[in-house]
Structures are given as C-alpha cells and as structure tokens.
From TrEMBL:
Gene3D superfamilies: 2.30.130.100. The keyword Signal applies. Residues 23-45 have a biased composition (Low complexity). It comes from Rhipicephalus microplus (Cattle tick). This is Evasin.
C-alpha cells in the first residue's frame, strides 16, 4: 500500500508540474504537431500538451499540506487509486463556486472508488489555480 501511495504522490507531482507549464502555454490544449517546444521571454515552455489519455479530478487542500481527492472518482469515470487520501463529507456542503470558503472535511482513504471515513476531521479548502490530472495508463 505504501508503494501505491508513493506512486500516487509521484503522479500528482508530475501532473502539477505538467499543468504549471500548460498554464503558460500560448496555444490551445490538444495534441502537438511537434515534440519541440520553444521558450518565451519568461523562460516558460510554449509547448502544447496532449491530454487525450488523462483524467481530471477535484481535490481539497489542508493546512498540513495534504491534498484530498473528492469522491475517489475521476472525471472520466475511473476510480482513484486505493489508499489515496480523500474527503468523505464536508461541512458546509462543498460549493466550488465560492473560492474563499473553508470547510470541515471528514477524511478517509479511497477504496474501490468510495471514500470510507476514518473519523478524522480537518479544515480544508479548494484551490482554483491548479489542475489535477492522472494519466490513464498509470491508473490501470
């Protein structure tokens, strides 16, 4: 299980790095006709990325720098990796349209696409400046 958690953390770190470069991209999202990218004046790559085999998922952040998956289900219908930290329930109810709201989150670990609670409550919030993605080949 520790190995799966390590792989999940590496995949999330890779996705954050990938999207950090994608946010500064001047082109549209999609497949690139060339593997070569150029650097703009700020040193950021302008290379396009192909996201066709990727799955996005929602997360909430915590004060102890943890990332909690919401619902253990990816936007493409796949399940999040087992043992991924997750949010079982929030109070008040989760509302992504309010970017400045803190929640009390009941924490759990993903198991077969569900998030059974471990009874722990933490303060959490949504961050709107980052995207989270998992490449499908890494989840199968």
């Amino acid at each position: 299980m520790a190995f799966k958690a390590c792989i999940t953390v590496i995949a999330v770190a890779y996705a954050v790095q990938l999207f950090s470069g994608a946010e500064s991209s001047s082109g549209s999202l999609g497949s690139s006709s060339s593997d070569e990218g150029t650097e703009n004046s700020s040193g950021n790559s302008t290379e396009d990325y192909n996201y066709e085999s990727s799955c996005f998922y929602n997360v909430l952040k915590t004060a102890d720098n943890r990332t909690l998956s919401v619902n253990c289900t990816l936007d493409c219908g796949e399940h999040q990796n087992d043992s991924m930290p997750c949010v079982n329930v929030t109070y008040p109810p989760l509302n992504f349209s309010n970017p400045h709201l803190n929640y009390t989150c009941t924490v759990g670990e993903c198991k077969n696409g569900t998030c059974p609670s471990n009874g722990t409550n933490v303060t959490c919030w949504a961050e709107y400046d980052t995207l989270n993605v998992i490449s499908l080949p890494n989840t199968l």
